[in-house]
Structure formats: structure tokens, C-alpha cells
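Need the bound structure for copper (II) ion, inputs here:
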Amino acid sequence: MTTASPERTVGAPATRTSTADPAVGAPASGRRASWRSRLDRPVVRLVGFALALVLALVVGGGVGAIAGPTAEPVAAPPPGPAPAPAVTDPATGADVSGLAISRDGYTLDVLATPGGVDTPGELAFRILGPTGAPVTAFTPTHDKPLHLILVRRDQSGFQHLHPVMDPDGTWRTTTSLTAGDHRVFADFAPEGRSEALTLGRDIAVAGDYRPVPLPPASATATTADGYTVTLTGDLVPGTASPVTLSVSRDGAPVTDLQPYLAAYGHLVALRTGDLAYLHVHPTGTPGDGRTAAGPAIEFLAEVPSAGPYRLYLDFAHQGVVRTAEFTVVAAAGAGTPDGAPSGHGDSTPHGH
Ligand SMILES: [Cu+2]
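Answer from helper R.:
Posting the output first, comments after.
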């Protein structure tokens, strides 16, 4: 069983748990374009174009929960920013993000980091634009102008924060970090740009760093306060793969999840080894008339290559955002030359 470690469940970084995030409980209208926009990506188009056309023609408006999101974005280009095509993975042609500090003229400029181990401190940064000046106008994606993801290089200590921007473009938040190198991801869409960007860089916290081995692959994760999340679905490299996460508490299915970031769950996937930041899209929107408030939350996850990934699910229930974590190993799919795992250790079901 994969268990969320204590520091990232209720009780640890304040932002992880206490947040009565403004998004929680907020109305869902007008959010459909957000996730649809995230699907308007080259690889999705490549993989799903034919299927989407067929589905759109055959099932029309009566699309099911799984087919719908695949079909719709192709049929109706979104008005909002699309996710960045980022870097194309040479192995599969799939997109990867978060591996670069600078892209398309935009640079993640970190100004201050928490200094001490497990000591709350300010994390401050700017997004510098093509002119070198800080960007001060952003188009919200998933309800927020900027998403900040922090994770230690060993994939422990995941945090998903929403800093506040000063008028001069400096973003600030307070956080506490363990010893070691941590990856900082900024996921945002500059106003006027058609695509979102994810930039990443490392920050160091001096101290006694004891890397935590990647937990073995498991379809079940638990939180410290009694929630169990079960994952079904296989990650197929280069394909938008349906993944279902089902939430229960003390053995009973949770059917009153709250909207969080325009969905009933927010999923981040990071590739083990280089922390490539994956795009994951909820396939239903609260209030759309067909998406239940649990226990199942549906996503389309697109991984660029075979091997292990760490998945972090944020979900809101009774006013508190919780995180459940999974290790998932993507098997080589039919699209690979030999259709089989590469033989590297990373391709085995147990990962490292
Ligand atoms: Cu966010």
C-alpha cells in the first residue's frame, strides 16, 4: 500500500490542509473552458483526432463520461490559454514540461527561499517576460493566476500553493521545507499568450538530507485522517489515458466532494528521475449535469514515456484540501517499437 507520508497530509504545511481555498465550494459556472483548453494540445489532437471525430459524429451530445472530453476539445477550440507544448520528448513525441527555468522568453526568477530546515520562511519569485521585465498580468487557469508546486527531488514533501502577487509582479508565499534540493514549478499563463507555461528550477535547503526511496507502485493511497483513494486505469505513454480515483472515508464512499480548482480533484503527475511535469485533465466539471461529487474522479493523464511516476491528488471535502499520493508505473504501449518494457529497472512494476 502506498501511504501518503505524514508531512503532506493534514497537519503539515498549512497550505496543504487548512486552506479553505476560495475555490472550495465556489460555483462552477464558466469553468468548462478551463479544462477543455488544457486538452487542446498537439499530442491529444494527434492521438485522439480520429477517435474524437467518430465519437462526435456517432454519439453527438450524448457522450459518456470518458468519451466526452476526448471528443469535445477537438470539436470546439477553447477560448482560454492552452497548456504549453513545452518540450517534445524525443522518445515518444509527447510533451513534457517543467524541465526548464526559461522558455519562450519567460524565466522563473526566484528572489528568496526559506532558509532553514523545517522553518517557515518566505518563498518569493517573479516571472520575467520577453523584455526582461516582470510579468504582472496573468490569465487564470484552473481558477488561479498561478499554481506553485513544490516537491523535493526524491518526490516527497509535495506542496501545491497559490502565492499572492505584488503589483510589481513579485509572487510571495510562506512555506516550510525539509533538507535537500526541492523543485519549484510555476504553472501559469501570461495574459495575451495563447499557451500556458510550466517553468521549473531547484532550490536548496542545507541540512541532513536523507532521500526517501520511491514507494512501490500501489493502487491505493491513504491519508492520515481516514481517507482511502483507489486508482484504476493504466498509463499508456503518448496517450491521454483515463484514470479514475475513488475516494472513501472509513470504508464509506465519499459522495459530497467539494469543487476545488474547478474540478472535484486536481492531479499532478511527476516523472520519477527528472521530475518532468505532466499535464492531467479532469474529465468532468462540477455542475455540468453529469459529473458526480464522488466517489469517483475521472482524469485523462498523458505520460511521455514508460516508467514510474508519482501522482498527487488534491481533493476537497468538508472544507479541507487533502492530498493522496500514488506511484504508478507506465508500461510501454502499443505505440512503442517493441511493445514491451525496455528492460530497465524503471519499467518493472515495482520501480526502484
Ligand atoms: Cu494550483
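Comments: The CA atoms of residues 46 and 253 lie 37 Å apart. The pocket of copper (II) ion is lined by residues 144, 147, 160, 162, 261 (CB under 6 Å).
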